[in-house]
Each structure stands twice: as C-alpha cells, then as structure tokens.
Amino acid sequence: GAAELGPYRHFMQKEIFEQPRVVGDTLEGVIGIMPELFGDEAYKVFKQIDRVLILACGTSYYAGLTAKYWIESIAKVPVSVEIASEYRYRDSVPHPDTLVVTISQSGETADTIAALKHARSLGMEHTLTICNVATSAMVRECKLAYITRAGVEVGVASTKAFTTQLAALFLLTLTLAQVNGRLSEEEETAHMKAMRHLPSAITAVLALEPQIIAWAEEFARKENALFLGRGMHYPIALEGALKLKEISYIHAEAYPAGELKHGPLALVTEEMPVVTIAPNDALIEKLKSNMQEVRARGGHLYVFADVDSRITSGEGLHVIRLPEHYGCLSPILHVVSLQLLAYHTALARGTDVDKPRNLAKSVTVE
Ligand code: G6P
C-alpha cells in the first residue's frame, strides 16, 4: 500500500534507494575477514577446494559473473559461472575439489536448486549459497551460507538483492584470498575500509537521479539500446540491459566493448543509444577508442564516467559523472545508475514497473 511506499512511486524505486542501508546491513558485524562468516565448517572447506563453480539464474547469474573477475584476480582461484538451467542438463566434467556456489535472492528458484542437486550427484559436496532468505530451500540444501540482508524485495526486477549479493561475494573473494595466503593485513584493512564506505558512496550515486531522469526521457522514445562495459563492468552492462528490457520493454543488448567490431557495430546508427560504463580503470584508454568507433558511425553515447576519467561531453556524447572511482567495488556503484536509468525510462513509458508483463518474482517451477 501507499504507506509502505513512503515518498516513492514504486517498490522498485524504494528498493533502489534502500541500497545504502541494506548493503551496510549485509556487511554489518564484519570487522575482519574470517571464514566462519560463511559457516562453522567454512575454513576446512575453503582449504580443500581449488576451484569455484557458480550456479544461478537472471540477475543472480550476473552477480556470479562479476564475482568471477574478483575471485580470479584477488584470490587466484579459477571460477566458472553457469546458468543453472543449462548446467543441470549438460554433460560437464565434475571435480570433487570444487566449491559449488549458488546465488539466489529467493532461495526457491527451481532451476538453481536442481543445478545444485545435479552438482552434488556428480560428487561435488562442498556447497555454499549466497541467499536473501534464511529459511529457504537453498539454505537448507547447502552446507555453507551467507545470508544477504536486502530485506523483502517486492519489485520483480531485482535491485537491492543484486548489490547485497555483490557485497557478500566480495567478502567471499577476500576470504578465499586469505585462506590461500594472498591477502596481506594492509590489503585487508584497505578493503574493509572501502566496504565500510560503500553506503555513502552509493548515496552519492543516488543523488544523480535528476540527471538520469533527463536521459530517461530520451530513452523512452527508443526501441533499442546497446550497453557497453569492459572487465568486471561487462556483467554490469549485462545487468543494465536486463533491467531496461524487463521493465521498459525496450530491446537492449550488452556487449564487452572490445567485441563491438565483431558484430554489434553493424547496428549502430543515430537511432541507437549506446550506454557506456566508463570507470577510470586500466582499460579506460581502450574504452575511449571503442567509444570513437561508435561516434564514427553516428551512434549516440550515454556515458557513466568516473569523475577522473577525463571524458567530456560533446556532439553525440552525453556524460554523467560518478563522484569517484571505487576500485574493485566500482561495479556496485555503476549498477545503481543503470537501475535508475531503467526505472525512469519505464516510468516515462508508463509500464507496470513493479510487475512487468510475463515475468515472475520467483520462478519455482521449471
Ligand atoms: C526471476 C526474477 C529475477 C531473478 C531471477 C533469479 O527471473 O524476476 O529478478 O534474478 O528470477 O531469482 P533468484 O531468486 O534465484 O535470485
């Protein structure tokens, strides 16, 4: 009802704005990295495994893809990420020393539960879930768990569940790094500090809402959009495109920016808005040349650029500046701006934001 919504028009908007608090809640009480955060047996399990297999669907799958970049770079453990409905039915090569990680907001997604059981039937016993519902089937089925504290998510399009999953997955990354002797005390202190600062960093991104509304009014008139990202922001581009298609019904696709020339460039015309995630990281110069490729074909760029990335607006190039570059945790900030873009585009198109056609909050049958 209206009372629950407070000043917001939809649950999705309310849930986007709850993110500083629920990300903080998810990390609350974490004063240092220790395996026990994931369960009593976690140390023993983490010592034993030498690879990670992540299984999930939808937005949770994109959280898993982001985690692959983190875990391989920081903990140096090989990770594969699979869509649950594919994994459960394909012939794969199991390995007993695998940490099987399921990611699920509801903990009840039929495909993800079936994929978990399939992994177990192949002899993989080390199971961990990152889940938002402590009483769910998923938590009961897994040996280890980290419960995100997003609270009840009503909007079908997942927002706060995603950012809390990312926070939990970053903790998992640091924990695996520590168990493998790859996390110095200085690094731990620096990462802990960055995590503590997340709520205020997210709040600063939420303050960009008025600028994003102006873009959304233009997007509302489009039928297609392309999202570009590189590295750990490629999964964020995928999530941004998913949000837009789910609730505004605009056809949206995401590509790793370096892959543009192998296909999607053929779609670029003046009619194609190209949303670009431009963190000020090691790939920024490469990304700028990808942006040139779009401009040269008349495509209009809408760039979310970190403040120090030296990208300035011009003809066919629109820029919204994120307040800071946030290192490893940058995906958590960039996705918030894309959630707002999808929300306001859908609002301008008058779609049923919280209950998009044909979609369900939790898919408990196959
Ligand atoms: C549905 C929801 C998505 C969600 C996906 C996986 O498709 O609409 O928002 O990401 O299921 O759900 P889960 O509860 O397993 O994270």
UniProtKB/TrEMBL annotation:
<dbReference type="GO" id="GO:0004360">
    <property type="term" value="F:glutamine-fructose-6-phosphate transaminase (isomerizing) activity"/>
</dbReference>
<dbReference type="GO" id="GO:0006002">
    <property type="term" value="P:fructose 6-phosphate metabolic process"/>
</dbReference>
<keyword id="KW-0963">Cytoplasm</keyword>
<keyword id="KW-0315">Glutamine amidotransferase</keyword>
<feature type="domain" description="SIS">
    <location>
        <begin position="42"/>
        <end position="182"/>
    </location>
</feature>
<feature type="active site" description="For Fru-6P isomerization activity">
    <location>
        <position position="361"/>
    </location>
</feature>
<protein>
    <recommendedName>
        <fullName>Glutamine--fructose-6-phosphate aminotransferase [isomerizing]</fullName>
        <ecNumber>2.6.1.16</ecNumber>
    </recommendedName>
</protein>
<dbReference type="GO" id="GO:0005975">
    <property type="term" value="P:carbohydrate metabolic process"/>
</dbReference>
<dbReference type="GO" id="GO:0006047">
    <property type="term" value="P:UDP-N-acetylglucosamine metabolic process"/>
</dbReference>
<dbReference type="GO" id="GO:0097367">
    <property type="term" value="F:carbohydrate derivative binding"/>
</dbReference>
<comment type="subunit">
    <text>Homodimer.</text>
</comment>
<keyword id="KW-0808">Transferase</keyword>
<dbReference type="GO" id="GO:0005829">
    <property type="term" value="C:cytosol"/>
</dbReference>
<keyword id="KW-0032">Aminotransferase</keyword>
<feature type="domain" description="SIS">
    <location>
        <begin position="215"/>
        <end position="356"/>
    </location>
</feature>
<dbReference type="GO" id="GO:0006487">
    <property type="term" value="P:protein N-linked glycosylation"/>
</dbReference>
<dbReference type="GO" id="GO:0046349">
    <property type="term" value="P:amino sugar biosynthetic process"/>
</dbReference>
<keyword id="KW-0677">Repeat</keyword>
<comment type="function">
    <text>Catalyzes the first step in hexosamine metabolism, converting fructose-6P into glucosamine-6P using glutamine as a nitrogen source.</text>
</comment>
